[in-house]
Write a structure and sequence with these properties.
Helix content is about 50%, strand content about 15%. It has 14 helices and 13 strands. Helix 1 packs across helix 2 and helix 9 crosses helix 12. The longest helix has 23 residues.
Length: about 375
């Protein structure tokens, strides 16, 4: 088998909040401060109220965890120097999009030119996991096969139930908000690298993207690195949940890559059914029934999560990750989503308390 999943890396997007009021902070000075502390592992995001970090290339979950601890600590230190804190969640519960300013960078100015209000309203944050897949043809096959399991990863990560102080009824309202862009969600089956390249060329011709970097799919072949990038998850407040996403994602990529190299058959539900499964994951998280895209039937979220874990067990044991990933999975199922926890806090103490709790969870590393 091709050496898939030997390395991985994680990108985390953070909201910046005022350390006293917990309101969204317009703090353009935080990013250069973070770059001074963390180097190229910190970078700007689309608005001046956001910051992104990226781990170095890692070979183990322990390395990923250690890097995430260091990066969260460094990002929070940079934020504190400007009277702010970092918050990791799919949405800031009370912020309004009009409170943020677009980062003055050619890339983001181009996004605004193309997408207009969608760019200036992009008040969401996610977690992206890169897993090494050296062969371009295999990367496309992996992306095709990931479609049926990505809703489970989304359900585990749901952390955006509130939007502009309103209860949305969703575990991941970020997913719905992001869906307004024409290049999000799961793609139709591609079949080959040639078909992928042809699709990218067609989308470039329409003017909807400049190149493959403009595809915001839930999983995509990276145009910068020899990886598959899985982008489906909300930003995770708790470090353990961020590590869980990394562990499950790497194992899933490794398993489906091996199946692709053996040319094993795989589920190919219609795009409409995939969208429905994604919607249910965003709507209910772990607190309701999801769609099992392997069967087309609804099933309890916990059953689908444990079913995925069982299918990944051999690979997780081979990489030495089984004990940690299985324990983190059961912990997540017992606790429920961040969205459910946020709702309980809001009912008890209000939305400002929710923001403060998310800030505390983000920095509790």
């Amino acid at each position: 088998m091709t050496e898939v999943g030997v390395t991985l890396g994680v990108e985390e997007e953070f909201h910046l909040v005022d350390a006293e009021t917990m309101a969204l902070a317009d703090a353009p000075g935080v990013v250069p401060e973070a770059i001074g502390l963390l180097g190229a592992q910190a970078q700007s995001e689309i608005s001046t109220s956001q910051l992104e970090t990226a781990t170095p290339v890692s070979t183990s979950l322990k390395e990923v965890r250690d890097h995430l601890v260091r990066l969260r600590q460094g990002a929070d230190e940079a934020a504190r120097r400007h009277g702010c804190r970092i918050l990791s969640a799919g949405s800031h519960p009370t912020a309004h999009w009009s409170e943020q300013r677009l980062t003055d960078h050619p890339r983001y100015l181009r996004v605004r030119e193309r997408y207009a209000a969608l760019a200036t309203q992009q008040l969401i944050a996610g977690q992206h996991v890169h897993v090494s897949v050296p062969e371009p043809e295999l990367a496309v096959a992996v992306v095709d096969r990931l479609r049926v399991d990505l809703p489970v990863l989304l359900a585990l990560s749901g952390s955006s139930p509130f939007w502009e102080s309103a209860e949305t009824g969703y575990a991941s309202y970020r997913t719905l908000w992001f869906a307004r862009f024409p290049v999000t969600g799961s793609q139709e089956l591609l079949g080959s690298r040639a078909a992928y390249d042809e699709l990218v060329a067609s989308l470039v011709a329409t003017g909807v993207v400049d190149d493959a970097r403009g595809l915001y799919w839930d999983a995509r072949p990276s145009s910068l690195y020899p990886t598959v990038e899985v982008r489906v998850a909300d930003a995770c407040p708790r470090l353990d949940d961020a590590v869980l996403q990394a562990g499950l994602t790497r194992a899933l990529v490794r398993v489906v890559a091996a199946q692709a190299e053996r040319e094993e058959p795989f589920p190919t539900p219609r795009a409409e059914v995939v969208r429905a499964a994604r919607w249910r994951a965003a709507r209910f998280g772990l607190e309701g029934a999801l769609v099992d895209l392997h069967t087309g039937e609804k099933a309890p979220a916990a059953a689908l999560v444990r079913g995925l874990l069982d299918r990944l067990r051999d690979d997780l044991e081979a990489t030495g990750d089984w004990d940690e990933v299985s324990a983190l999975t059961e912990q997540a199922l017992a606790r429920g989503t961040s969205a459910a926890e946020q709702r309980r806090t809001a009912e008890r103490a209000g939305l400002t308390a929710v923001v403060r709790e998310l800030v505390e969870q983000t920095s509790d590393v």
